[in-house]
Structure formats: C-alpha cells, structure tokens
Amino acid sequence: MERVRWKRADLWVLLGFVVMAVWVTSRLWLDPNGRVLAGNDDDHGIFLFMLAHAERVVFDGASLLYENRFNVPVGVNMMANTSILALAIPLAPITHFFGGGVTVVLLITFGLGGTAFAWYWVLSRHLGRTRLAAGIGAAFCGFGPAMISHANGHVNFVSNYVLPFIVWQVLRLREPGRVVRGGVILGLLIVLQIFINEEALLFVAMTLGIFAVSYALMARDEARRVWKHFTAGLAVAAATSGVLTAYPLWIQFMGKGSYHGQPFEPSKIVTDLASLPAFARLSLAGITKVTEVLSLSETEDNTFYGPFGLLMIVVSIMMLWRSPAMRATAIAGIAMLVVSMGPELRLVGVKTDVPLPFALIAHLPVIDLVSVTRFAMVPSMVAGVLLAFAIDRIGSYPTKTRKRFWIGMTLALVPLFPLPLPVVSGAPQPEFLTKGIWRQYVPEGRTLVTVPLPDVTSGRTGQRWAALNNLDYATPRGYFMGPANARKGDNTGSWSAAPRYTSRMFRTLGDTGNMPMLTEENLEKIRKDFRYWRTAVVVLVPKTKHGNKMRTVLVSALGKPQLVGGVEIWQVPSEG
C-alpha cells in the first residue's frame, strides 16, 4: 500500500481551514452551553437531544436505537431521526463532562473544516490537482454558502467529510483487481455515512449514478472494459453495507416510532432560480431582505453563488467540456440542480407554470422524505470540484487569459467569504436543575414537565434544559420526528408527539395569549394529561411569553405552587 506523506503545505492548508471554521463558529464558542444559534434554535435543540441520547448509551447503558426518557411514555425511534450516532457515540465523554453545547459547536467546527480538508485531500492526493487548486476548490466545498447556511443547526449536513472518500472509492472500482477489497471499503464507508446523514448519502448516490451513465455514454470503449468489475464492486459494497445495516434500517422504517412522509409537502421547499446569482445572508456581500425572498430559511441557502461566482462556474465548465469525465461531472451537478427546483419552476419567490422533471419522481419512496431544495447542496460540491480542475487547467492558457481568470475568481470568491453564525443567549438553567434539587421531587419512572411543554418552536427551553442535563430526568413530548398520531393510525411524519388537550391548549396560549375556558371538565383533562405523562413535578419556565396566564391555568388545575431553586413548581401525586 502506497504511503501518503504529509508536507508542510498540507499542514498550512489544514490550519487555514481550522481558522476559518473557528471564525464561523466563534460566537458560539464563547459560551457553548449558554448560547444557541439564532438562525435555527429548534434544530440546535434537537441535536442537543441526539447528543444527550448518545451520552446515555455510553454512560448509562441505554438502548442504542430507542430513547425512553424523551416523549414519555411513548419514546423516540432514534434511527428514524437524524441521530448522528457515528459522531455522537465517540464524543459522548465530551457531552458528559463538558455539556452537549460544547459537543454541538465542536461538531459544526469540525464539520466545516473537516469537509473542506477531506475534499482537499481527495483532490490533491487522488485526483491529481495542485495544492493551490485543491485548496480553493475544497474551500468552496467546505465553506460555500450552502455549508455555512446549514451550519445554523444542521450538524448532520455540515459533517460531509466521508462523502469525498465515498466518491473516490466509487471511481476506483473501475480499476482491475478491486472488486472485493474496493467493494468492502466502499461498503464500510457507506455504513459510516448512514450513521451520520442518510440524506446526503442519497444525494451522492443519485449524483454518482447520473455521472456514471453520462460518462459511459461519452466514453463507451472504457465503459465496455470496466463495467463488469465496476458493477461487481458495487454489488460487494451493497452486500457489505446491507448486512451491517439491515437491522437498524428495519427499525428505522418498520419499528416502533417509524413514519412515512414529512409534516409538509416536500416539493414546496424548492430552489428559486433567481437564487443562483444572488448572495446568501451569511456571505460578506449578503443582503438579508433579498435572501429572504429567495430562500425558505437561514438553513436552506443552498445555492447563492453570486453573479461572478455563477459566471466562474460556467467558465470552468466551458474550459473543461472536452474532458468526458468533467463533462459528466457538470451534467450530474446540473441535473441535481434542476431536481432541487421541484416540480415547477420558481422565480423570485413566484411559482410559475413551467413544469420540471422532479414531478416524475416526487412521490417515490425515500424521495418523499427529502426537503427538495437540499438536492442543491450537490451542485455546490460539484462547483468546488470544477473550480479546482479549472484552476489547474488555466496554467496552460496565455498570460492575458490567466489574468482575467484570476480577476474573475477574486470577484467570485471574496464576496462569498462567510460571516460568523449569529447566536442568542438561551434561558439560563435554574438552581432547581443545576444543583440537582429536582432529584428530591422526581422518583424513577416519573417525569419532570416544563411549561411551556417541550415541543417544536414553542417549547425550546424545556427541551434544551433536558438535553443539557443529558436526560437525567425523563420528560414528555419534545421536538423529534415520529408518527403524527399512531394511536389513530396516522403514521405521517410529524415534528412532535401526537397532540393532547393540554399540549394544544398551552401552545395556543403561548402563541396567542388567549386563555382557555377553565371549566372543571377542562381542568380534569389537564390533570389527566399530566397523569398520562407520569408527571412528578411541573416547572414553569421563568420569563416565558404569557407566563402569567400559564401560571393561572396551572394554579387552577394543580393548586398553589412552591418556589424552589429559583422556579415555581407543582407536585403531581401518583395515580396510586
């Protein structure tokens, strides 16, 4: 096996990527457990939960694929969620000793810098690009607008450092003698990626499929020579990964807490054509009000190349078009870009009647689980690869052309330089939690319930507190993916537990301030729900919106509270 030697230039590149990653996450590093990402505090909270689950697996021997201290009494299917087990399990000691907030910012930082360096390694070591070309192309892959956007809470979508090696191993299967060894290596990488982010694996598989078909049509002689051992290697990879992940995937799609579809119409979240030459909100040249028209949220700025960035991508394609491999790469990237635009073209926020090919595959299994605009993450990676190859190629052009090229690259890349992720302070934990006073009130088998109830958007604080305590106490509901209402036969995907009277009431009260009718019948419904959740103690989150009205409801249902450890609490007697 050939030894790959590090050189000083590689270390400088690595250091540069680390510095850029720390720059982007710097505001969160200042207080990882006290701050949350302003662009998407909901997803920040869900990954805190994933990390708390992993900590319980390692330190408490909890079930790997199910969590029973969240969404009590039903629990959560962890395989049916973005549980990042391949990352969360090894980092469980950091979560245990330093807190989940530290692990989140560490993973985002390593995700950005690690993805960039992985692409640099593959481009420079295995695809023969110069270090300069590989560094610039890899920087676009790791720190482009799509990656910076998803760094607002999507830990799984910035952790893409396995994908370049999957791509490389697929390309190597065309070499003779690699059917078994290459197939097994590829299969193991696929397994690793499944436990990081299955969605990204799907994107790469689709892209490589388009690439392979396109390349085979353009290089038929080579395709005839390699197709047998290439497909045999893929079969070995499929068998390897299939055997190792059969049971977890069965749990994901068929086990308790599994679901189908999304809580929204995936094809409505699409890439706007006008976003291609625009700037993302966290780019140096970004204008938030413009970006808001062209993108769903801070975490979905998946294109946004800027006018000169888009121009240089097109120039790179033109420079490389004579190469069948580069042509197939460009075709694959463009195809995925078109797929990301959904069934009908959207332009400057307006849905047009122009049909697009995605309508043909929109309702296929697995595809219906994907937010469509995320397919555009692939073109961003493809663009980085194309830029790297174009930078290498420009060296053979006349001096005047080289100067124009580098002026264009400067105008393309400087405005895309990423800004630090915005953060806000999270609600501080009361002494009732930090000093462990809650243990006196919550026996094993019972729950601690925060009001507002842990839920997507409305109950961020309760979920964050439970996760920062590594689920030492059990809690009902929460933000996670599961069936909308399995008891009533509705297994459509939902972001939270099945609704109950009390959860709907507190959510409406928090959103609108409208008090419910406090009849004895309704108060008994509240008490019944608390018994269903096995509640030992209810904690009112201080300074919460419409908190005084929530207190009135709790007093009417449960009596007068106690002031303990900086919070008001209500003890709930057991049914027995």
UniProtKB/TrEMBL annotation:
Highest taxon of the lineage: Bacteria
Keywords noted in UniProt: Membrane, Transmembrane, Transmembrane helix
TM stretches of this protein: 12-30, 45-66, 78-98, 104-123, 178-196, 202-218, 230-250, 304-321, 328-349, 369-391, 403-421
Protein's UniProt name: Glycosyl transferase
